[in-house]
Specification:
- By secondary structure, this protein is mainly alpha-helical.
- The protein has a domain of 106 residues: Tetratricopeptide repeat domain (Serine Threonine Protein Phosphatase 5, Tetratricopeptide repeat).
- The chain contains twelve helices and no strands.
């Protein structure tokens, strides 16, 4: 779900609205403004995201998102990381981006955990550290972040930052493939899984398949 749609839904939830008309959306936005002004962090983030993506009030939007982020709201912290990461509305700054991604990660954002992993893998804002990257990817993968699952699988396949483990690579390629929406991407992940399987014994493949079947994301 896009940030804009998520923000609209959050605004409507504030009003307990399920089927929205234009008037409902306008009223939801007004409700969000009132609650945001009163300090509600979800309303602050929702309002900020809507203004950021749907208006020219960029500075005001960032201020609302920042207010929610300073209240340890993980989606807002992640969004701050994105803005510093790509220089959208704020000056590009790897250090600030990593700091906000790390905060979102520590507050349970699987996407934030994956982004911290990316920064350690690429050496952005920190010394490159494949082991640390793998540790963060594992947290994101356990939290059901698709890209973290792929990155972790690739690291197990290559033996980068972790001991090479084709069974674990098989597991994570399989889990990522099972929820990839694009057919070409899914086929590519299945091919990688099959390459890993070709380097395993039949018994190892059976064990890995059971791990896939019983896997559940960590809350």
């Amino acid at each position: 779900m896009s940030v804009v749609r998520l923000a609209v839904c959050a605004c409507l939830v504030l009003m307990n609205v399920t089927a929205a008309t234009e008037d409902d959306v306008s009223q939801a936005l007004e409700t969000a403004r009132i609650r945001a002004t009163a300090g509600d962090r979800v309303a602050q983030f929702s309002l900020g995201a809507l203004l950021y993506y749907g208006s020219t009030e960029t500075s005001r939007a960032i201020e609302w998102i920042r207010q929610a982020a300073t209240q340890s709201y993980a989606p807002a912290e992640f969004q701050m990381g994105q803005m510093y990461d790509f220089g959208f509305g704020l000056g590009q700054d790897d250090g600030q981006a990593l700091a906000w991604y790390r905060r979102s990660a520590e507050h349970g954002s699987a996407a934030g955990q994956r982004m911290v992993g990316d920064f350690y893998r690429k050496g952005r804002g920190v010394t490159a550290d494949a082991s640390e990257a793998a540790r963060w990817y594992r947290r994101g993968a356990d939290g059901d972040d698709l890209r973290a699952q792929y990155e972790l699988a690739q690291m197990y396949f290559d033996g980068a930052g972790v001991v090479r483990d084709y069974m674990s690579a098989y597991v994570w390629f399989s889990i990522a493939a099972s929820q990839t929406p694009l057919t070409d991407n899914r086929d590519g992940l299945i091919e990688l899984r099959n390459i890993a399987a070709a380097r395993m014994t039949p018994e190892q493949v059976a064990i890995a398949a059971r791990r896939v079947a019983t896997w559940k994301p960590t809350p």
